[in-house]
Design a protein that fits this description.
4-stranded antiparallel β-sheet; mainly beta; about 130 residues; 5-stranded antiparallel β-sheet
């Protein structure tokens, strides 16, 4: 493997090349910045020292977060303490490949566990533990 030279990255989406910017981040690391052109997987081809990096192409999964919806009583402002609160998150119109992550915090910034089940349409439930 080459240890000299600069990396070359090519970002490609379903509609062809995607403009991107590569910036040195220090310690041999680089930051690739781009704006996806569709909510579908994008490929990143990497070369270093004029040689392909093993594992090419790397796939970046892209979703449209504006197409994710959430609804249910667990999202309202008035919930009884120590009772299950639930809600549904629908990601089916956002594109493929997204990983749903939900973080719920109490008024005192304590993490509240949230049970999530499903795929595409997720059922979520948690138990508020304090008033606020």
């Amino acid at each position: 493997m080459s240890t000299q030279g600069d990396p070359l990255l090519m970002m490609n989406g379903p509609n062809g090349a995607v403009p991107s910017r590569l910036t040195k981040a220090g310690d041999g690391k680089y930051l690739l910045t781009f704006v996806p052109n569709a909510a579908t997987p994008h490929n990143i081809d990497v070369q270093f020292g004029d040689q392909d990096v093993g594992g090419n192409p790397f796939v970046c999964k892209v979703i449209d977060g504006g197409q994710v919806t959430a609804q249910g009583r667990g999202l309202s402002g008035l919930l009884p303490v120590d009772n299950v609160a639930d809600f549904t998150v629908d990601t089916t119109r956002a594109g493929q490949g997204g990983i749903l992550g939900i973080n719920i915090t109490s008024p005192t910034l304590q993490a509240i566990p949230c049970k999530v089940t499903g795929s595409g349409v997720y059922d979520c439930s948690y138990i508020p533990s304090e008033v606020g």
